[in-house]
């Protein structure tokens, strides 16, 4: 395969604009997969069950296809990318192996928040962009208007825009032609030393770790002795091949090709994303890797039944083989027992992981409230990162001289102008700063007559990891789209809130709260606890405390007497049964001081808002 017949490209778009559907059509049109039955949407590349259920792509998937054009057989390598903000990291690594990108915009919805962010990533990487308007079969499609919008937002010539329906297949053949004609072939010669860029990895139960690579120069053969620039570890290549879309062994990979390599890597961590592989004894300069995925949302995960911990830990380990961006640490809590503290890229990532854990491994789990990583700075300027509220120091004691910084993000929201008031209110409620707005459609009106607006602000990450997106959707009737990017750290008036039962703190329930919100949050949580904790033989005060100050308090009144006392006449059998039930209940109870807390109470508190 000389380079000039190879094209490497990704599909980029806002979520739901049709990437996976288009990927399926391209694979069908090139005969890579059988044509789906009419009306069925196979979404071939969305492999994970949770992806199919939620209709989102979580992990970038790669597929090669053959396409005959101008009398020549071309090898097209497609890299499907996820569309959600949490997975921006997956998007940028897919693009690192491509020379071009299909920018897909839904012709009924127009440019959305992530259309803009993925466009910028592609531009920065110098990719050739092929603009596409999808879903032109929809009655609500406005191709003229949306083409004008793409022109004003991206500076794209409307004449370059391909109009398609990924659903019916209309216009899709033109995309294949455009891929060959407009996207430059990769460069790199067989004469140069081997240099392969590792951009993703899979885990195969039998063969172990499989790396996906883009050969930048040289030839990669079965039997080659290769070495990693990053770890300096050496391997023998046991198999190479194409993803077509399942693995097809080929003996050899040429420059410009995208394919897989199996080389007896034992653990996923050995396949370092962004690494460069070379031949043993022929070192090359490593390619600039990219920013490693950074966990920004942390939560504790505990089994409902504490005896299940080994099973839970095993499940987590197996899942992280296919999702490398989750970080794991052991954690133990006096209230919840042995568990793990996991770090995620964002809240959707956390939800997806939780669902996979529940689906694939049938584990009953409790997940604590999500937190972001905070920076604690002492008088001498020494920084400590804290991502577990229980480890958060008492910063209200001014003698300690500690200051707190929290991560903030640049958020951008696109919505019809009518919702501007609602959106800015929501942002301010969530401690937003530097709010700005501008019109997206240069003078042109949307179908309903209102112009669309882009609102940007700086907002604490902790404010958007809970329910910000859901609220945004509901307050704008689903019309708003949202994206964010890292904007560093800012000083903030935050402190730890602890909950006391009968004077004893419950470690699993500590929260980090902002000065302006502590009263509201304290009252709400104390009320929730009051509802779920069973009554005891004595009175149990429930308190929310910040520093040394009690913010809110409820009192759980005492139960009158022994449970069995009420059973008149003492039907022996009935009494025994009751005691048995009580014993059964005890197993699941956790003691905090003298207060019994059913494990399920935590589940209630933490899973409901
Ligand atoms: P992704 O999130 O970008 O991967 O989007 P999907 O490919 O999963 O598509 C999102 C939804 O839009 C699915 O329900 C598709 O069936 C639908 N869809 C995709 N392309 C078209 C199209 O051309 N026309 C219509 N009417 N629906 C489409
Ligand atoms: Mg998809």
TrEMBL record:
Which of this chain's residues are annotated to bind GTP?
A: 13-20, 80-84, 134-137
Keywords for the protein's UniProt record, in alphabetical order: GTP-binding, Hydrolase, Membrane, Mitochondrion, Mitochondrion inner membrane, Nucleotide-binding, Protein biosynthesis
Tr-type G domain: which residues? 4-187
Compartments where found = Mitochondrion inner membrane
GO BP annotations of the record are:
positive regulation of translation; translation
Leader sequence residues: none
Reactions catalysed according to its record: GTP + H2O = GDP + phosphate + H(+)
Sorted alphabetically, which SUPFAM superfamilies does this protein's record hold? EF-G C-terminal domain-like, P-loop containing nucleoside triphosphate hydrolases
Q: What is the membrane topology here?
A: Peripheral membrane protein
Q: Which InterPro entries match?
A: EF-4 (IPR006297), EFG_III/V (IPR035647), EFG_V-like (IPR000640), EFTu-like_2 (IPR004161), G_TR_CS (IPR031157), LepA_C_sf (IPR038363), LepA_CTD (IPR013842), LepA_IV (IPR035654)
Which is an annotated Pfam family here?
A: GTP_EFTU_D2
Molecular function GO labels:
GTP binding; GTPase activity; mitochondrial ribosome binding
Q: Which GO terms describe its cellular component?
A: mitochondrial inner membrane; mitochondrial matrix
Record flagged with keyword Hydrolase: yes
Q: Which domain of life is it from?
A: Eukaryota
Q: What does this protein do?
A: Promotes mitochondrial protein synthesis. May act as a fidelity factor of the translation reaction, by catalyzing a one-codon backward translocation of tRNAs on improperly translocated ribosomes. Binds to mitochondrial ribosomes in a GTP-dependent manner.
Q: Which family does it belong to?
A: Belongs to the TRAFAC class translation factor GTPase superfamily. Classic translation factor GTPase family. LepA subfamily. Belongs to the GTP-binding elongation factor family. LepA subfamily.
Listed name of the protein: GTP-binding protein lepa
């Amino acid at each position: 395969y000389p380079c000039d017949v190879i094209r490497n490209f990704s599909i980029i778009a806002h979520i739901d604009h049709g990437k996976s559907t288009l990927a399926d059509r391209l694979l069908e049109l090139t005969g890579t997969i059988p044509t789906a039955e009419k009306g069925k949407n196979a979404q071939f590349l969305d492999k994970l069950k949770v992806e199919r259920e939620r209709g989102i792509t979580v992990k970038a998937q790669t597929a090669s296809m053959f396409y005959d054009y101008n009398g020549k057989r071309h090898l097209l390598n497609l890299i499907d990318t996820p569309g959600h903000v949490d997975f921006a990291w997956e998007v940028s690594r897919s693009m690192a192996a491509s020379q071009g990108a299909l920018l897909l915009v839904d012709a009924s919805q127009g440019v959305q928040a992530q259309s803009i962010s993925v466009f910028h990533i592609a531009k920065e990487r110098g990719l050739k962009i092929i603009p596409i308007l999808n879903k032109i079969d929809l009655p609500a499609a406005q191709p003229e208007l949306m083409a004008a919008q793409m022109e004003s937002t991206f500076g794209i010539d409307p004449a370059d825009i391909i109009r398609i329906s990924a659903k019916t297949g209309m216009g899709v053949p033109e995309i294949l032609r455009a891929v060959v004609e407009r996207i430059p072939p990769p460069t790199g010669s067989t004469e140069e030393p081997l240099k392969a860029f590792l951009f993703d990895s899979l885990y195969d139960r039998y063969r172990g770790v499989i790396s996906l690579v883009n050969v930048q120069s040289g030839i990669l053969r079965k039997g080659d002795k290769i070495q990693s620039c990053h770890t300096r570890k050496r391997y023998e290549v046991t198999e190479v091949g194409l993803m077509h879309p399942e693995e097809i062994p080929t003996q050899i990979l040429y420059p410009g090709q995208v394919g897989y390599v199996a080389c007896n890597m034992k653990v996923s961590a050995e396949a370092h994303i962004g690494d460069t592989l070379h031949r043993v004894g022929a070192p090359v300069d490593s390619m600039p890797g990219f920013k490693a995925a950074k966990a920004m949302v942390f939560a504790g995960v505990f089994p409902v039944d504490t005896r299940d911990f080994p099973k839970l830990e095993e499940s987590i380990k197996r899942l992280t083989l296919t999702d490398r961006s989750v970080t794991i640490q052991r954690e133990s809590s006096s209230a919840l027992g042995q568990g793990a503290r996991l770090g995620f890229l964002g809240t959707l990532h956390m939800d997806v992981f939780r669902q996979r854990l529940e689906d694939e491994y049938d584990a009953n789990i409790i997940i604590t409230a999500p937190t972001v990583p905070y920076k604690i700075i002492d008088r001498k300027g020494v920084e400590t990162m804290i991502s577990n509220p229980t480890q958060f120091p008492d910063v209200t004691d001014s003698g300690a001289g500690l200051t707190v910084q929290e991560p903030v993000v640049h958020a951008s929201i696109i919505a019809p102008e009518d919702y501007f008031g609602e959106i800015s209110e929501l942002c301010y409620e969530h401690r937003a700063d530097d709010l700005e707005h501008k019109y997206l459609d240069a003078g042109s009106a949307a179908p309903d007559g209102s112009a669309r607006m882009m609102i940007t602000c700086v907002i604490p990450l902790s404010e958007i990891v809970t329910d910000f997106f859901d609220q945004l959707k509901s307050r704008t009737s689903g019309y708003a789209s949202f994206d964010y990017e890292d904007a560093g750290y800012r000083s903030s008036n935050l402190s730890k809130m602890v909950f006391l039962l009968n004077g004893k703190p419950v470690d699993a329930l500590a929260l980090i709260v902002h000065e302006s919100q502590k009263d509201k949050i304290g009252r709400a949580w104390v009320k929730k606890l009051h509802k779920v904790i069973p009554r005891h033989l004595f009175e149990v005060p429930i308190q929310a405390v910040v520093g040394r100050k009690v913010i809110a308090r409820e009192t759980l009144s005492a139960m009158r007497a022994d449970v069995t006392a009420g059973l008149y006449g003492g039907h022996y059998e009935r009494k025994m049964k009751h005691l048995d039930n009580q014993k059964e209940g005890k197993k699941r109870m956790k003691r905090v001081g003298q207060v019994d807390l059913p494990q399920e109470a935590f589940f209630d508190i933490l899973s409901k808002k």
